[in-house]
Amino acid sequence: MIKRQSFINHSYLNWLFKFIMAGLYGLLSAIGLNLFLNSAHSYSIGIPGIAQLLNGILIMNHVDLSIATLIILLNIPLVIFSWFIFGWSYTLFSLVAVISNVIFLHVIPEMDIITERLTNTLVGSVIIGIGIGFCFRSGFSTGGTDVIVSYIQQKFHRNIGFVNTIINAVVLVFTAVFFGVSGATYSLIGMMITSFVMDKIYIQQNDVTLVVLTKKSPAIIENLHDYTHGATLFSGKGIYTNQRTDMLVMIIQKSDIPFLKQAILLVDKDAFINVQTTEVLNGNYIRKF
């Protein structure tokens, strides 16, 4: 009964944390757009950037449609796609992120805090990148093109920042056509910075090789029996001690290191643990989301 209650409490806390992260993204994205990027006439990545671009083009043609409204309209087909591909839980929090962004875009007024264009681009892009990175790290996207990015990242093991850069090249082309090369250049700088910040925060997409040398491999294997990824066991012998020492090799996501370290040292406090950066090229390996 205690274990069940503990599980339920953990589940509630996890949901609460995700709601907070979704709301935080909405706040950070609105701050980045209304207080910095719009002042620099620099465009963000994803749907917010497309909405900025469309808003500018529509204003040139005397059509008044707000960025927030455009974000809602552009997200509708992508939310449906997310529902079918990733399920209701992933889509729910992505939808919360979109809604919170729209709300904060209405609440936070557009104003010029900094006059220098490059500084506005840098600061706004970093703020937005932090918000997006936290959403991905919490197990959901910010909606919009991030749904497509998540799908490509899961299927082809490409970093989200890299995939975002490819998608947003289209925005840059149209920005150059309608608003000149200068606007496209600042937008490119901002997109690259946002992508870089996203990749640094979203560590789940980084794979590592975990090597464990232990004399208590049966107990460790039993403790990790239900873990998502498998492991390979090699039997060995220490050169100096001449004692039997087994080697466990696992390919895992970087975010799982603290959990595995605790699980291994709980059984064998003298275990030798080594982590190496790796790149999975082929084989039966699926990232958790």
Task: Explain how this protein is built.
It comes from Liquorilactobacillus hordei. It is found in: Cell membrane. It is a multi-pass membrane protein. Residues 229-279 form the DUF2179 domain. With 289 residues, this protein is an alpha+beta fold. The chain folds into two domains: 2-204, no CATH class; 206-277, Alpha-Beta Plaits. Helix content is 65%, strand content 10%. It is built from nine helices and four strands; from the N terminus they run H-H-H-H-H-H-H-E-H-E-E-H-E. It has helices at 2-40, 46-60, 67-86, 88-107, 117-137, 145-156, 160-201, 217-223, 257-267; strands at residues 207-214, 232-237, 244-253, 272-277. Strands 2-3-1-4 form a four-stranded antiparallel β-sheet, with no helix packed on it. A hairpin with a 6-residue loop joins strand 2 and strand 3 (244-253). Helix 1 (2-40) packs across helix 4 (88-107). The longest helix is centred in the middle third of the chain and has 42 residues, at 160-201. The chain is elongated, with a radius of gyration of 23 Å. The two termini are 29 Å apart.
